[in-house]
Structure formats: structure tokens, C-alpha cells
Amino acid sequence: AGTTRHDVAGGVLLVFLLNIVLSDMLFADVPKFVNRMSNVTVTVGRDATFACSVDNISNFKIAWLRVDTQTILTIQNHVVTKNHRIVVTHSDHRTWYLHIKETREKDRGWYMCQVNTEPMKNQVAYLEVVVPPDILDYPTSSDMIIRENTNVTLECAVRGSPTPVVSWRREDSVDIVLGNTKRAVVYEGTSLTFQRVSRKQAGAYLCIASNGVPPSVSKRISLIVHFPPLIVIPSQLIGAKSGAPLTLDCHVESFPNPISFWTHENGSLVSEGPKYHTWVEQVSSYKMFMRLHIGSLSKQDFGTFKCIAKNTLGGSEGVIKVYNIGFFGESSHYVTDQGDQSTNQIAKSTWGLNQSNAGSSSQQSSFSQRLILIVLVTFLCLALLDNFVPN
């Protein structure tokens, strides 16, 4: 019995050793992948390369395939596909490279490295083709001309991979105002909507697209707001001296820029010449100052002047009244209804107060004199009475 048990144990050990030896003999030359293939990310237009390392390739063959279409691209050193952008190379028949030249978006997908063993061995990796952002000509907005108080939307259509993020900002870095409460330097979204657009919202807006793939791109869109002229008069009533120079001002808001001119009280145009000089000072895209300079005021200049502005959407006028306060060289140059009249009132009040004080002092002096006279007369009367009274 003891001998039988030893024989069985020896037989099992022998079989185990034979299996090890046979396995080494059978599988010593079987190909195996050295490491996992890596995914590849490339910008469109650049070259992409996959690497597949295999040990013990022996007489086996390596093939590259496109997984989604089940297309064989290469077998060993031969390119099978008709795609001229596909190239295969190797390093000592151990590491095999699949090169995709000038990648396109359609190249995005899974690729397989396969060894023709039985069963076949393979590895897969993904090619991601990223695309920088691009702003489409349509339906992206171009420069827009809009009437004030109407609604308008600016559009920015983009493409790219990953999908780009779109942001808006004003070229002058002023806050973007949407409605009464929404105000920000930057807004995100493919569109920008203005309800009842105002002249203050006119300007150049930048649509900026970015997706992490350089470069970011932008487009400049001008929002042009049209409205009829509006005139504001800083001083409607001006006092000035005959012979003095005088400049009249009208503040105008208008877009497009208006035709502007001045008229006399009788409606005749103020003509440019030695006495009258007119000009417009542009303050912003839609704000300006109309100015009329009169070299020397004469009798016919006292009265009403009108500043008039007109564009294709309408017109507006302002009225300034000039009145005479004396002759040039006397006291102040000229006065206006806003400040100098108050000064005159203060001066008049002070003059009245001085007159009142002077009258009061005169009355006090007269009363003192009468009081002294009464006292003297009283003493005189008492002295006379003493002489007539008997002792």
C-alpha cells in the first residue's frame, strides 16, 4: 500500500512537470501586447499617430483597422485602404505605428491593432479630432441699423469641437445693459436681445467664441440706433451788454448727424461772416454742441435766436432770448437767467438794507436833538419860577 501511494504521488508530479514543459514549448512564440494603446487627441489638420507594441511576433502579421466601419487600413507594411493619408511604419517589427496625415473631423473614432493569432488578439484606442472655434457668416448678424424703441437681437452662430462657448462684450468695455435691471460687462449665449433699444445701447459689440482649442475667435458687430434730433438749451434767457461779444449754446442729440443752423427772430438765417461764427463740436457718436458766436452785440441782436437741427427722421429747435442790460464796459460782461440774476437780487437786497439802516440812524439823531432841547427848556422854566416865588 505504501509503495502504491508513492507511485501515485510521483506520477502526479511527473504530469505537472510535463505540462509546464509542454506549455513553454507550445506558447513560447505566441505574440503578446507589451502595453495598452493610448488614446490620441489632435487638432484638425495635424498628424495623428497610434503605437502598438507586440512581443514574439514571429511569423504572425499585424493589421490596423477602423472599428466603426470595419475597414482594414494596413496589413504588415502594406496600406490596403485607398486613403492616401494613411501610412504604416514599424520599429524592428516590434512596435507598429499607424500614421494619419492631415487629420479631418471624419477621422474621429476607434482604431484597432490586430494580430492574426487563433483566436485573434487586438487592442483599440480612440482618436479625438478637436476643432478650433469658428464664427459662421450666416446666421451671424452683420452691422445693424435699427430705429430707437424697437426690439433687436444680435446672433452669433459658431462651430467647433468641443462646442464653443459664446460670450458678448462691448468694444469700449462699458457695461452691456439689457432692460432695466440686467447689467454686466460680459454676457454668455449665442444671442443678445435688446427690448426697446435706446441710443445709449448703440455701439460696437464683440461676439467671442472659445472652446479650449486655440485660437479663440471674435466678430465685431455694430449696433447703430437711429432717432430724430433732440435739443436741450442750457440758458434760455441771457442778459448781455450792447457792443459785447456773446456765445450761444445748444446741446443736440441726433443720429444720423443732423443738418444744423441758426435763425434770427424774423426767421432769417444767421449767415457766417465777420460778425457771426457758427460751428458744431462733436462730443460723442450722437451728442454735439451747436454754437453761435456774436462778435459785437448790436440793437438787432437783442431778441430771439433759434437753433435748429434736422435729420431724415425729424427735427427739433431751441429758442434763446437775448436782452439788453446796458452798454459794454459798464460793470459785468453779461448775465444769464441762471446765475447773475440771483446776484442782482442779492445786490438789490443789500442796497435796500443799507438805505433802511441809513434812515434809522437819521431818525435816532433827530430824536436825541429834540430830547436835549426839551431838557434845556425845562431847566430854564424852573429857574424863572424860582425868581417869581416869594421867600
Task: Outline the structure in words.
This protein is α+β, with helices and mostly antiparallel strands and 391 residues long. It folds into four domains: 1-27; 32-131, Immunoglobulins (Immunoglobulin-like); 136-226, Immunoglobulin-like, CATH 2.60.40.10; 233-340, Immunoglobulins (Immunoglobulin-like, Sandwich), CATH 2.60.40. The chain has two helices and 28 strands. The radius of gyration is 51 Å and the shape is rod-shaped.
What ranges have pLDDT less than 50 throughout 5 or more consecutive residues?
20-27, 332-365
Number of helices: 2
State Rg.
Answer: 51 Å
Distance between the termini: 195 Å
Average of pLDDT: 84
Biggest β-sheet strands, sense, barrel: 8 strands, mixed
Give me the CATH architecture of the largest domain, please: Sandwich
Q: CATH fold name of the largest domain, please?
A: Immunoglobulin-like
How many domain modules? 4
Structural class of the helices, strands and pairings? alpha+beta
Percent of residues in beta strands: over 45%
Helical coverage, percent range: 10-25%
Number of strands: 28
Please tell me what the overall shape is.
Answer: rod-shaped
What is the CATH class of the largest domain? Mainly Beta
Order of helices and strands: HEEEEEEEEEEEEEEEEEEEEEEEEEEEEH
Mind telling me the CATH superfamily name of the largest domain? Immunoglobulins
Please write out the topology.
Elements: H1 2-27, E1 32-33, E2 40-43, E3 48-55, E4 62-66, E5 71-75, E6 78-79, E7 86-91, E8 95-100, E9 109-115, E10 121-135, E11 144-147, E12 152-155, E13 158-161, E14 165-170, E15 176-178, E16 182-184, E17 186-188, E18 191-194, E19 203-210, E20 217-232, E21 237-242, E22 246-255, E23 259-263, E24 276-282, E25 287-294, E26 303-311, E27 314-327, E28 334-336, H2 340-388
Parallel strand pairs: 2-10, 11-20, 21-27
Antiparallel strand pairs: 1-3, 3-8, 4-5, 4-9, 5-6, 7-8, 9-10, 10-13, 12-18, 14-17, 14-19, 15-16, 19-20, 20-22, 21-28, 22-25, 23-26, 24-25, 26-27
Domain Ig-like: 31-125, 133-222, 228-326
Main location: membrane
Keywords: Cell membrane, Disulfide bond, Glycoprotein, Immunoglobulin domain, Membrane, Repeat, Signal
